Each structure stands twice: as C-alpha cells, then as structure tokens.
# Entry
Amino acid sequence: MAVGIVIAQPSGQSPASQPPPKTVIPQTYPLEQIQAGSLRFTSQCGFCHGRDAAGGETGPDLTRSKLVADDNRGDKIGPLVRAGRPDQGMPSFTLSDTDLAAIVAFIHDQKTKSEALGGGRRSVDAADLATGNADAGRLYFNGAGACSGCHSVTGDLAGVASRYQGLALLQRMLYPSGRPAPARPKVTLSLPSGQTVVAPLAGDDEFTIVIIDPSGARQTFEKSAVKFKIDKPLSAHFDQLGKYTDEDMHNVFAYLNTLR
# Structure
C-alpha cells in the first residue's frame, strides 16, 4: 500500500536529512497487537513499503508520512488502505477490523521508534563514494557476496555505471527500485489435486500464502495444505544489507562504477 506525500526539499538536501513529521496524537499499543501487525504488514504491505515500513520497492517511507503523523488509531490509514490509490499503483485491501488495527499499531510503533532516533540522517557527500577499492570489490562480487550467482557484468550489469551515477548507483546496488516497478515475486504451488499453479505472489505469512490469479483476484491457501516455492530475486539484496561491512559496500560500489 502507498501512504505518504511528497515534501519539497531545500536544494542539495536529501529527504532523509529532514526530520520526519511529528505524530500529532502519541499512541501506544499492546505488544501482541504490534507483533501481529508486523506479520500482517510484511505479508500485505512489505513488498512495496519495506518490512520495517521505512520504504521499499515502490512505496514511500511510512515513518515519514504526514498522513501517518496525523492518523489517530487508524482513522486516516484505515480508509486509505481499504480504498487504495489505484492511480498511484496501490490496490485496495479487504482486511478484517482486527488485521487492519494490527497493521495500524505496527506502523505507529515503527514511527515512534523512528522519532526516538532524534532527527534525520545526514546527507551523503560525494566524497563518501570514492573510498572503495575496485579490485577488492570484484573479488567480493564473485566470491563472498555471491553477486555473480544472479548478475552478469556482460549481461544485466553491462554499462550499469553509465545508466546510474553516484548515489543513484549505490541505491540501485543496495536496494533495487525504480520505474517500471519490478515484477512481483513468483510462487509455484503444488495443490493436493496434483495441479501445479505458477502465479504472482501477493503476500505470505507463517500460515497462509496469497497469489494473484489470471483474473486479477487474490486467492489464499493454507501453507500446511500445499507445497510451494517462492522465487524472490530481490530478497538477496535485502539479506545482503545485514552482511555488508562499510568496506565491502564501498568496494563493490567502486567495482560497479567501472562497468561502463
């Protein structure tokens, strides 16, 4: 789902360098509700907004959304989630009151944590991007980082540094996004009848898996009743974020910067 507004920034400053809007009515929620909301948010909203609600493939950072800041226990988030924003690529969601309230609780909890950090992050200076070693980055790309298992410097990455420069290249490397939006992950289901279904993944949690059928409708299956395999190519990028050292990150960036 896509919740947020565009805020004009002073020239030369990134959105991340600006403090997020303050929550108008501070709110607290039971831990159990927040945890339930985390699971539901990940399955329904995480593909677009990121698992932590801080921005993802096509959706904005909800911890910096004025609509979320103005929301009081779902009075603004709820109607938007149920109506959607089709013109911005956000579908409508049919959720029970319990599930919607849990998602609202999770979003507000994430925003509260964001506000507790005490201000925005600093902007990244161009000099920060010139500290890597391209040779070390090439070794990491083909070795510990296992990047070459999915990417080819003579295929999809050929000329990548000509298409993206500076921060745009770093962003593409760490958290791929852009237009057109990347395709949804695919799921292969083996049903009890013996039928095999391959369809776009709409969401999943520890109990259910949701697909989009050829008519565009959502179908939900109990994970315990089917065999399934989910193909999430971008997950490797998300997982890698927790493995990079600063040195690794700068080295791989330096190597990608040679692919012109």
In short: The two ends are 36 Å apart (CA to CA). The CA atoms of residues 42 and 51 lie 5 Å apart.
